[in-house]
């Protein structure tokens, strides 16, 4: 017995339908050995990884059209990992990461469900350096700025793992900490651009969703 229940969901991205195993609802919880609690995952947070959220769909749509060829990509807080699955289908070099103990088996199952090769996955806690993770041309994430300290933690990951010439793309449903994150990335030399996006079919202008795109280029690369 797994201690939790799941359901199947279908999500259409770029004309392709992705089959996904997700948690059956947001009330699921199973931490029999206390692993999640030791990682700092409360019972209220435990099920959040196992849903396809509007920001996750928005990121997956962006990754379907983003020019990621010849780029090494890192997804932070991947959860179900829809954006990483989209990149995997495109043949992009992508590493999915999360801290939830079930993110890896769910990601592996969903890759197989969509007849994709297994994704490269790393368990990553944003407050603990992981030197073996290496560096990336593009770092992506969806709805990761929902607590007051997340801007600093996420900026720290970017500082450790972004190449000097790099891009960061974050989808955000209009939470209050994105401005802090933008300032921290500006301190690292990133220029920023923002696009307002609908979060679902019911969203009307002015859209609350934001596609935050940060770019850093060394001077020598421009000459």
Automatic annotation (TrEMBL):
<dbReference type="InterPro" id="IPR029063">
    <property type="entry name" value="SAM-dependent_MTases_sf"/>
</dbReference>
<keyword id="KW-0489">Methyltransferase</keyword>
<protein>
    <recommendedName>
        <fullName>Calmodulin-lysine N-methyltransferase</fullName>
        <ecNumber>2.1.1.60</ecNumber>
    </recommendedName>
</protein>
<keyword id="KW-0963">Cytoplasm</keyword>
<dbReference type="GO" id="GO:0005737">
    <property type="term" value="C:cytoplasm"/>
</dbReference>
<dbReference type="InterPro" id="IPR019410">
    <property type="entry name" value="Methyltransf_16"/>
</dbReference>
<dbReference type="GO" id="GO:0018025">
    <property type="term" value="F:calmodulin-lysine N-methyltransferase activity"/>
</dbReference>
<dbReference type="Pfam" id="PF10294">
    <property type="entry name" value="Methyltransf_16"/>
</dbReference>
<keyword id="KW-0808">Transferase</keyword>
<dbReference type="InterPro" id="IPR025800">
    <property type="entry name" value="CaM-Lys-N-MeTrfase"/>
</dbReference>
<dbReference type="GO" id="GO:0032259">
    <property type="term" value="P:methylation"/>
</dbReference>
């Amino acid at each position: 017995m797994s201690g939790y229940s799941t359901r199947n969901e279908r999500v259409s991205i770029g004309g392709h339908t992705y089959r996904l195993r997700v948690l059956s609802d947001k009330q699921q919880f199973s931490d029999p050995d206390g692993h999640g609690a030791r990682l700092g995952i409360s019972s209220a947070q435990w099920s959040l990884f196992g849903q396809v959220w509007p920001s996750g769909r928005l990121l997956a749509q962006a990754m379907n059209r983003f020019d990621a060829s010849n780029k090494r990509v890192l997804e932070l807080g991947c959860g179900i990992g829809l954006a990483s699955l989209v990149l995997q289908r495109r043949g992009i070099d992508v590493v999915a990461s999360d801290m939830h103990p079930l993110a890896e088996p769910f990601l592996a199952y969903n890759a197989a469900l969509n007849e994709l090769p297994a994704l490269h996955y790393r368990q990553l806690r944003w407050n603990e350096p992981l030197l073996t993770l290496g560096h990336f041309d593009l770092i992506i994430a969806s709805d990761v700025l929902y607590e007051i300290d997340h801007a600093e933690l996420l900026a720290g990951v970017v500082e450790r793992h972004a190449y000097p010439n790099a891009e960061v793309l974050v989808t955000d449903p209009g939470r209050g900490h994105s401005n802090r994150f933008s300032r921290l990335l500006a301190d690292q030399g990133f220029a920023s651009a923002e696009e307002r996006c609908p979060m679902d079919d019911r969203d009307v202008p002015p859209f609350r969703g934001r596609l935050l795109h940060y770019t850093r280029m060394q001077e020598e690369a421009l000459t």
